[in-house]
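__Protein archive entry__

___
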Amino acid sequence: MMTQPDTFPDLDSLYPPPSEAIQRAVLPHLIAFHRTYLEAATFFCLATGGADGLDASPRGGAPGFVKVLDDRTVAFADWPGNNRIESLRNLRQESRVALLFLFPGQLTFLRINGQARASTDAALLERLQEGGKTPKLGIVVQVDQVLFHCGKAISRARLWDPASQELTQDLPGIGQMKTALMGGDPSEAGAVEAQYRHAVTHDLY
């Protein structure tokens, strides 16, 4: 059962307020530091919500795949995935979004909160081309808030520590899981795994 408002912990008694420096670092527009990080960005998660539920969608590309259109606007392409397109369906109902960027090797996050819309503008799509391909549509985000976020979660997870990868080596593979979920022959798991790995490393655009 979800916690009811009248029984929810008193947050102000549990946590001190953010420092003045942290509060002043939350801006309504991009500055040079944000632009530099966005130019280097290769991965972020896009959070959306709608009447049918919530979605957190991973997005990735070569450095520069997120385009800064001006100090209040960024854009990125929507490339093929699993075709659930939950983010896009949510945007038809609710424009509010949150973007959380991770930077390999860095102990900081970049966060953008704002309002988003889908666009099929030809000039924008041409600007968002990757791998010689033009996306079907782009997502344009108007920045409401932008801030850097401390990387304590990265340190706790030892995310960039090569030794951490060893902890996941024995996890079930996609081929094994997909075959089991579809009621297929377990002997086909290897072929399914190979097909999946080819798709996620070659069929990118």
About this structure: The mean pLDDT is 95.
